Amino acid sequence: MKIRVQSIHFSADVKLLDFIQKKADKLDQFFDQIISGEVYLKLENTSDEANKITEIKLLIPGNDLFAKEQCKTFEEATDKAIESLKHQIDKHKEKVRARMSNHKTVLANEEII
């Protein structure tokens, strides 16, 4: 899957970029129709230690999925955002399956009539 990473107001190191790509590639195991993804890494100006924000947007057919997490490290925020996206992918697949089974039921009923 093609991932585009933007780090806002800082330069992300290669290790972080590789970590994000590796985690995002695992999403292909759950849903093979992911078109691409966009990751935004931000530093929030606060006195709080949890000032690192990861936002991930996945482009899938007919929908976009989005997750935003704020933690002490970008790795932790990325992990949480990926987990959130896995849950969203599962919900999306359930909706598609339900729509397809309803559609098949309607077609079957029409053939009977």
UniProtKB/TrEMBL annotation:
Record Pfam families: Ribosomal_S30AE (PF02482)
Domain of life: Bacteria
Gene3D superfamilies reported for this sequence: Ribosome hibernation promotion factor-like
InterPro entries registered for this protein in UniProt: RHF-like (IPR036567), RHF/RaiA (IPR003489)
Protein name: Putative sigma-54 modulation protein
Species in which this protein is naturally found: Daejeonella lutea
